[in-house]
Amino acid sequence: RSPIVLDSDPGIDDALALQYLLGTGLWDLKAYTSVGGNLPAEQTYLNARALTRAMRIDADVPVHRGTGRPLTRLPYTSASAFHGKAGLGNETLPDSTAAHLPESSAQALLRLSRDYEGELTVCATGPLTNVAIALLEDPAFAHRVKKLVFMGGAAQVPGNVTPVAEFNIWADPDAAEVVMSSGIPFTMVDLDASLRWLFRPADLAAVEAAGAGTALAARLLRVYMDAYRRHGGGDACPLHDPLAVGVCADESFITVAEGAVIVESASELTRGKTVFIPSAAQQVYYADSPVLTSRRAVTGRVALGPGPRDFVK
Ligand code: BDR
Ligand code: CA
């Protein structure tokens, strides 16, 4: 099993991502690092702790407290309209019995990148604030991790929190820009892919019928599906964060293109827009643009759509 850190802002689909990660049996989860996002940082930390207890890993997997605010901005409004008042639907889960750890999420990321140099996968399913803090403190972090797979952005499709921006990137665009210009090997699992693998009522019925082990997931999925229905999503909901976990092990859930991503942070109107520049088109786009030329070297892997392997099944 390979070492991984899950950096998350639970959040319903974050919670599902954790359960899915554990269920694959592929990963050695070294830490569950929380970050503010769907709810303020204190709440996502408490949710992360409660989830480790609900999934019976609280004795083995340390939970770290993430930062309370984006790099340079005020904390954002929460996404409780989708995730429920405290972030986990209607659940009130008991707290973990583990002691509170003094080490922050960013510090834990840095330590684990040294302990597992060249081996550590980081899967981020919230704003990229913790990862950016780690990079700002020690830029070599970018070269010690094996890869960063994050859920965020919209390469070619509209946004979900503004017409042009996806929530995780919009919440801390400066952090996203730090990350994507750092040279860290990244895969961006964006709305282009996550909105194309939809979970439907028949899938929910299958999860509900699967027994006690999936009861919590089923309750969360029901709330999430209702929220998407209320927000005009129809009878289906995307599984953004579980998809990122899936991609850590198998990129065939998405269709990937190589390229650079530049994050807009100066304009409030287009804040958090991810501008994707395919490597193949660099010659054309970079010809007359000093802005683009200065960032040409930093490429990553970007989802442009769903892949050949069905993620929902
Ligand atoms: C992302 O935003 C959050 O609300 C979800 O948990 C997911 O990480 C989707 O845009
Ligand atoms: Ca999330």
Automatic annotation (TrEMBL):
<keyword id="KW-0326">Glycosidase</keyword>
<protein>
    <submittedName>
        <fullName>Nucleoside hydrolase</fullName>
    </submittedName>
</protein>
<keyword id="KW-0378">Hydrolase</keyword>
<dbReference type="InterPro" id="IPR001910">
    <property type="entry name" value="Inosine/uridine_hydrolase_dom"/>
</dbReference>
<feature type="domain" description="Inosine/uridine-preferring nucleoside hydrolase">
    <location>
        <begin position="4"/>
        <end position="276"/>
    </location>
</feature>
<dbReference type="GO" id="GO:0016787">
    <property type="term" value="F:hydrolase activity"/>
</dbReference>
<dbReference type="Pfam" id="PF01156">
    <property type="entry name" value="IU_nuc_hydro"/>
</dbReference>
<dbReference type="InterPro" id="IPR023186">
    <property type="entry name" value="IUNH"/>
</dbReference>
<dbReference type="InterPro" id="IPR036452">
    <property type="entry name" value="Ribo_hydro-like"/>
</dbReference>
